[in-house]
Amino acid sequence: MRPDQSITSQILGLIQADGMSVGSHLPAQLLADRLRVSRSPVNDALAYLAEKGLLTREPNRGYFLAQEVSKSPGLLKEAGQAKSDAVTDAYFRIAEDRLRGELPDEFSEAQIKQRYGLTPAQLTAVLGRIANEGWIEKKPGYGWEFSSMLTTADSLLQSYRLRLALEPAALLEPNYHLPAHVIARCRAAEKHLLEGGIKTDTADQLHDRGVRFHESLVEGSGNPFFIDAIRRVNRVRRLLSYRSMQDRSRYKQHCEQHLHLLDLLERERNEEASQLMHKHLSSTLRNLKKISNILKP
Do 5 and 81 form a contact (C-beta atoms < 8 A)? Predict the structure, then answer.
């Protein structure tokens, strides 16, 4: 049985965005955490990719990349189709309608099913994805409601001001440590973007790449309060992040700054890295203010 195409597509996107080399380990729980889903659909997708020859499975160790994704054109074609499937289309239509104020704060599954012409399975998938990202939640008993957070340009700017206070401080935590394999993974993802990914990656891939970079750096702090805070704010800023990606001109500078941050942390120059992180996020905040018209309904 073919697994959820959206999950398979996102895993392929992560492999490419992270610049994974042949032999790289793909831990199911880590992928589930990054995609904000349970392990079950991830395991189904990994088993399918192994069946297609992209991955190999080692007993008691899990799945490993067996060949470059570019050498599996059939899988890439499927991924391209998944990007335009009914669930993904409905997801972006719901996001845009919510930002325009065309959806009420509370709604029933029947309303969404009818408005977007979804099958029961598609409805479950799209609501599950949105719930995992934190911008809707189930009401007690019946129906759903949208989160009140991050539906305006001001709220996205507020989230960046929170990150401006949090992320530079995380880099100064005692015993901060960013493992070499994490640095290598993050560096490969940035180089992928500079080599053309800025133009070709989907909004999903760009957002997830940025989220994973910043969460990885905060995770190096080992401080669970920092880590939980950054994960929470990232879950609910996705909606407006998509709109801000309409202007990708600033991404080259972002990538260069990210690579500089990795260089500093690799050399344990955390004071300088903290200062650069503050400068990096301040610059992003200024740029978002300049394109605030894009973020408005």
Answer: yes
Residue-wise pLDDT for 245-281, tens only, equals 666 778 899 899 999 999 999 999 999 999 999 999 9
d(CA 19, CA 205): 13
- The overall pTM is greater than 0.90: no
Which single residue is written with the structure tokens 């399918």? 48
